[in-house]
Amino acid sequence: MTPQRSLDECHETPIPASIVLYNCLPSLSSTESKSKKWFRVDHATNLLVSVRLEIFLEGGDGESTVIFSSQHDNSSIHPMWNYLNEKIKDWEQHWTEQSKSAFVRIFLIDKEGISLLVDSVPLNPKSLRRIPSDEEESRLIQPPPSALPPNALLIHYTDGLVRVEASLYHILLKQGIIHERDPRDA
């Protein structure tokens, strides 16, 4: 190992294995009612929208190349895309270089076919916050869907860890779902 290489470069960069979009909802008012009763969106399958996931590489010239695209049609309030590490051709060979420019985009598609970009998240594990594990039970803490805001994106990596955007991480901290370890305990 040469002194110029960091410790992180010596280990393989984990690859996204699955992506789950929790509480996939179109933007609706929470006070909407049906027949003067509270209306629960999760009980109305006709309100579930189609969801498209795109993984793309962003080039230095601002152009992007989509390397994977998959759409769920009215399927679930929690759509997921599994085995991404196996489905994307040559990802294993080139991931270390590609991870710095890889992103995921999520689109909600309404009944008229109009796409609305919900989120664009970097896939580089260093750009995301990992969900801590419960050391007493030596298992990964999985936030309950009810604790997650609408359209929360959780990315599972081949190293067994789940990573999220910093904004979602801070929401989970604020709600007490996850706790940061005090570095003095290490």
Radius of gyration: 19 Å
- The low-pLDDT segments are 1-11, 28-39, 182-186
What's the shape?
Answer: globular
Compute the number of strand runs.
13
Biggest sheet, spatial arrangement of strands: 6-1-12-13-9
Query: Please, how many helices?
Result: 4
Please report the distance between the alpha carbons of the first and last residues. Answer: 26 Å
Main sheet attributes: strand count, strand direction, barrel closure:
5 strands, antiparallel
How much helix is in the residues? 10-25%
SSE string = HEEEEEEHHEEEEEEEH
Strand content: 25-35%
Which structural class do you get from the secondary structure elements? Answer: alpha+beta
Mean pLDDT figure: 77
What tags apply to this protein structure?
single chain; 186 residues; alpha+beta; four-stranded antiparallel beta sheet; 4 helices; 13 strands; globular
Secondary structure layout:
Elements (H helix, E strand, L loop, with lengths): L6 H4 L5 E7 L10 E2 L2 E2 L11 E9 L5 E9 L7 E2 L2 H4 L3 H8 L3 E8 L5 E8 L6 E2 L2 E2 L4 E2 L11 E6 L4 E3 L1 H10 L11
Antiparallel strand pairs: 1-6, 1-12, 2-3, 4-5, 4-7, 7-8, 9-13, 10-11, 12-13
